[in-house]
């Protein structure tokens, strides 16, 4: 686990020395101000504890790997920065885009990071939750930071963000319907980054209103889609993904608890009523009674489930 006094990187990319949480219970006990200063990768990995596919999870090793990869990205960026300075027009006159291009290229080329081909579906088709969330390595960072080196849109954007924040990049997680992407956002620039495919792509908000699923203005207002997540909301998303994984494991009561924890972290976020309806049906069939209904609706990550 991450030792006491470890440097913690917050959402702003800055560093401070704090006692880092070592368990999910430790993390959930933190005040919002402390969560804002907690390494997003650490939050993600702690939310994976106890899930299928995380039996051998070593948080400290994963964080050390991230630090090593970030250092490699830094070296490659500095080595190739002359290309931007020589022909800035090729990168939209944006050093930020150039830096993200190097980051993505280094992760994909040097460390062989990619989307798990078993999770790829034809456009417009989505796997059942029990399949998509059946293995935590597909949706949490440890699947990318160990020998497997594969993930999905549940984990790849988080990897890019965790590496970028170690380099001081102002990166945010953003949700749209059935998908997650990242955003570079500071006082000078704001652009969206698709981090789940081959290469790195820049898209405006309108693109993510239509892909991978059409999302209405009403859904955007109701669910908080297309806006940058706060650290509290990032944690809520990880907890929601945890809830989906627990449900895929047949642990309905623990899944409910995870989604309730997510709801406590963020009430102004995506409320996934479909999840709660599906959960309600499974809960009843397993409990054999209508008197033990799970509470709902609760907030979920909206990954692969829609609304």
Describe the structure.
The protein is α+β, with helices and mostly antiparallel strands and 307 residues long. It has one domain. The protein has 13 helices and 8 strands. The relative contact order is 0.12. The N terminus and C terminus are likely disordered. It has a 4-stranded antiparallel β-sheet. The chain has a two-stranded antiparallel ribbon with strand order 1-2.
Features:
alpha+beta; 4-stranded antiparallel β-sheet; 10% strand; globular
- The order of strands across the largest sheet is 5-6-7-8
Determine the N-to-C terminus distance. Answer: 36 Å
Assign a percent range to the helix content. 40-55%
Biggest pleated-sheet summary: 4 strands, antiparallel
pLDDT < 50 stretches:
1-5, 270-274, 287-307
Structural class: alpha+beta
How many whole angstroms does the radius of gyration measure?
A: 19 Å
The total strand number stands at: 8
Determine the strand fraction and express it as a percent band.
5-15%
Helix and strand topology:
Blueprint: E1 7-9, E2 15-17, H1 24-28, H2 32-36, H3 40-47, H4 59-86, H5 95-110, E3 114-115, H6 129-132, H7 142-145, E4 150-151, H8 156-166, E5 171-176, E6 179-185, E7 190-194, E8 201-203, H9 205-210, H10 217-223, H11 231-248, H12 252-265, H13 273-287
Parallel strand pairs: 3-4
Antiparallel strand pairs: 1-2, 5-6, 6-7, 7-8
In short:
The protein has 307 residues and is α+β, with helices and mostly antiparallel strands. The protein contains 13 helices and eight strands.
């Amino acid at each position: 686990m991450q030792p006491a006094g470890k440097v913690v990187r917050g959402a702003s990319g800055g560093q401070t020395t704090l006692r880092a949480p070592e368990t999910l219970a430790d993390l959930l006990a933190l005040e919002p101000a402390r969560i804002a200063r907690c390494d997003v990768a650490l939050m993600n990995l702690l939310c994976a504890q106890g899930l299928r596919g995380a039996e051998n999870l070593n948080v400290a090793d994963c964080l050390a790997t991230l630090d090593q990869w970030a250092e490699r990205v830094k070296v490659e960026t500095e080595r190739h920065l002359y290309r931007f300075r020589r022909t800035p027009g090729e990168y939209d006159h944006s050093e930020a885009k150039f830096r993200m291009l190097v980051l993505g290229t280094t992760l994909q080329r040097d460390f062989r990071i990619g989307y798990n081909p078993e999770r790829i579906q034809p456009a417009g088709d989505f796997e059942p939750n029990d399949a998509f969330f059946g293995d935590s390595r597909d949706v949490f960072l440890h699947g990318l930071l160990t020998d497997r080196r594969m993930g999905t849109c549940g984990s790849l954007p988080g990897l890019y963000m965790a590496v970028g924040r170690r380099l001081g990049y102002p990166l945010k997680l953003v949700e749209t319907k059935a998908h997650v992407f990242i955003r570079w956002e500071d006082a000078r620039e704001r652009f969206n980054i698709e981090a789940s495919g081959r290469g790195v792509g820049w898209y405006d908000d309108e693109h993510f209103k239509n892909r991978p699923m059409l999302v209405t203005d009403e859904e955007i207002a109701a669910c908080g889609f297309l806006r940058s997540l706060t650290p509290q909301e990032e944690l809520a998303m990880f907890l929601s993904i945890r809830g989906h994984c627990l449900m895929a494991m047949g642990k309905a009561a623990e899944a409910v608890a995870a989604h309730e924890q997510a709801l406590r972290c963020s009430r102004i976020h995506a409320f996934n009523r479909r999840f709660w309806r599906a959960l309600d049906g499974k809960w009843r069939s397993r409990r054999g009674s209508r008197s033990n209904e799970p509470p709902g609706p609760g907030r979920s990550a909206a990954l692969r489930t829609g609304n």
